Each structure stands twice: as C-alpha cells, then as structure tokens.
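Researcher: Checking consistency across runs. Here is Protein HEADING DATE 3A again:
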Amino acid sequence: MARQIRDPLEVGRIIGDVVDSFRSSVDLRVYYGGRIVINGCDLRPPQVANQPRVEVGGDDFRTFYTLVLVDPDAPSPSNPHLREYLHWLVTDIPGSTGASFGTEVVCYESPRPTMGIHRLVFVLFRQLGRQTVYAPGWRQNFITRDFAELYNLGSPVAAVYYNCQRESGTGGRRSVN
C-alpha cells in the first residue's frame, strides 16, 4: 500500500489557519543569510533579525507579485488574539526577480517571539497589475484571506513557513522536514 505524502503546509496548519488549500504554481525561495527556508524548519530570532533575500520564479517580468510575511501565532500560540501579525509586505515584485525589485509597503520587522513556537509564513500572490495593492493601516489582526480578497489577488501561488521561538525557548511544535 502506497504511503500518502501530506503537504507540509497542511501538517503545519498553514492551510486552514492562514490560507485555504491552493496549488503552488510559482517558485518561492527565501534565504536568511545562506540558509534557505524549508517548510517547518527552525530559525532563532538572531537568524531572522535581518530582512531575508527572496527569489520569485515566474517566466515573465511583466507579471507582478505581492509577498506577505505573517505570524498566525501572535502573541502566543495558545492565545493568538493578534493573529495574524504582519511582519512584512512587498508589492509589485516582477516575475523571475526578487523582493528587492518590488515596493516595500510595510517594512520588515524581525520576529521576536516571547512565548511558545511561532510559525512565520511567507505567502506569495499574483497581482492583477502594477500599483494595485496598498499597505494596510496596521500590523496586528491582519488577515491574509481578507487582504487577498480586497485586492482581488485570488489564491496564493506559493507559500513557505518556518518555526521561530525565543532564544532560550525549548520544546513545543515539532518540525516538519
């Protein structure tokens, strides 16, 4: 009997908590320093203090993308009443380039969890056109689904997440590698 491989985004409850089920259609690579983010990997606050390098696939630089980075576990996984906390928002990223070629509309705020293990989720959307997505007025209680609906972004085209906890934290959510 063949063993069914589950999507790491489902295992990590990204699908459900942050986005609905979708089919990934664009490559998304996120690097902190020289380390690539793989779904469910563990990164500590010092490793994510600086804005990551993000590469977006696609074969047409006339197609634009929006990238969001959210924490669905803010302020703590057991009481996520600030869900989702927006850590970064970049729009107008041309296909086959990276976030540095886009427009940073909400500056990068490094994750600094104080309690528990937090999931930090990068979600990539295809835009309908350039300069069609704008910054929200707040970071806390940002809702990726509502944001996507407001700007007619449709389903995500890619997503990746990592786990992060304070430097002295131990135990908790299991990695999915």
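Researcher: Does this match what you'd expect to see?
Model: One thing to look at in this run: The mean pLDDT is 92.
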